[in-house]
Amino acid sequence: MKHIIKTCTNIFVASVALYLAACNQQNNTLQPNSITLVAVGDIMLGGTAEEILVKNGYDYPFIKVQHILDEADIVIGNLEGPLTELDESTLDKEYLFRSPPDLVAPALKKAGFTIMSIANNHILDFDIEGMNDTINSLKKQRIQTVGAGNNLTEARKGTILSTTNGSVGFLSYSLTFPESFWASKNKAGTAFGHEKDIREDVKRLREQVDYLIVSFHWGREKSLELRPYQPRLGHAAIDAGANIVLGHHPHVLQSIEEYKDGLIIYSLGNFVFGSYSTDATTSVIARITLHKGKYYSAEFTPINVANTEVVFQPQLLTGSAASDVIKHINSLSKELNTNLIQRNDKGFLHTRSN
Q: DSSP letters of 216-278?
C-alpha cells in the first residue's frame, strides 16, 4: 500500500512539474531575474489623428492596451515623424509628419515608453532642427532615442538602458529612402544599415551589455513578403551577438523567425498611426522575456489597429479575430520554421535552446 501511495505521489509531483514547465513556456512572468521588453509598431500621433487627439487627449491612444505596457521593464516603439512645432520644411516630399512635442512626449512617457527608435524615413521631415527637437523633447521625459544623430558616429553609437536585472543595448538602422536622411561623417541623419557596420556595432555594444536589441526600418510598405536583404541583415545581427531584431516600415505584419539563439520580428506593423488607411488593420504587441543573457520567450497579443473602427485607439482582439492574426503570422513564418502556439487569444514562442 505504501508503495502504491509513493508511486501515486511521484506521478502527481511529476505531473505538477510538467504543468508548471508548460506554463513557464507560455508565461514570461515566471522567470526570476529576467527582463521584460514590450515592443510595438509604428507610432505617429499626427496627421488625421490630430483632431481626435486634441479632443480626447494624447493619452487616449494607449488606454485599451495600457495594462500590457505596464507589464514591461522596457517599452520600445518606432516614432514615425518628428516632435516639433516647426510648420515649414525645406523638403519636397509627399508625406511630411510631425506631432506637438509638449503633448506627445509626456503622453509617451505616461504610457510607459522608455526608448524610441528614430531611424526612419520621416524623422527629418522637418529637417535637422525637427530631429533635434524630437530628441530633446523625449530626453526631457527621460525617454531615450536611438538610430539618428548629428553625425554618423552619433547615429551608430547605440543606447544602453539599465534595469535591476541587467543592461540592455539598442541599435537602430534605416534602409529606407530618402537617401538625404542618411547620416555621414559630417552630416546629421539616420544610421544606414550596411552589413559591415551592423556587425561592427553589434560586437562593440554587446561587450558592454547583458542583452542587445537591433531595430531596422526596412522592407516594402504594405508588403507581406520579405526583401532578400531583410533575413540577410537580421541573421547578421544575430550572428554578431544580438538577441532580438525588431522590424518596422511595412505598416503590416510580416513573418517571425527564431534564428539560432535569437528572435527576428520582421515587421510589427502599425501601433498608433495617424491615418485612416485600410491597408493596416491588425498588428501585435510583442512581450519578450530576456533571461540569463539570452532571448527566452515571447508573447504576441493581437490588436485591432483599423482606424476606421478603433479611431486611433488600438484594441485587443479576441476569439476568432485573434486566432486569425496568429494563423496569419504562422502562415507567413512557415518557411522560416517558426510557429506560434495559441493560448487565450495570444501567440507564444519559447526558444528552442531552453
A: EE-S-TT-SSPPTHHHHHHHHHHHHT-SEEEEESSSSB--EEEETTEEEES-B-EEEES---S
93 with 19, same domain: the answer is no
pLDDT the model gives residue 5: 43
Tell me the three state secondary structure of residue 154. Answer: helix
The pTM score is 0.91
The CA distances from residue 47 to 80, 82, 276, 294, in Å, are: 11, 12, 10, 39
Give the C-alpha separation, 77 to 18, whole Å: 36
Please write the tens of the pLDDT for every residue from 104-159: 999 999 999 999 999 999 999 999 999 999 999 999 999 999 999 999 999 999 99
Give the residue-averaged pLDDT of 299-314: 98
**For residue 213, what are the CA distances in angstroms to 39, 41, 107, 174, 205?**
11, 15, 24, 15, 10
Residues 147 and 211 in one domain: yes
Query: Would you give the distance in Å from CA 323 to the centre of its chain?
Result: 21
Query: Both 247 and 109 in a single domain?
Result: yes
**Domain co-membership, 311 together with 280:** yes
How many domains does the structure of the chain reveal?
A: 2
53: exposed, middle or buried (C-beta count within 10 Å: 0-12, 13-18, 19+)?
Answer: buried
DSSP state of 156: H
Asked if residue 151 and residue 15 are part of one domain, the reply reads no
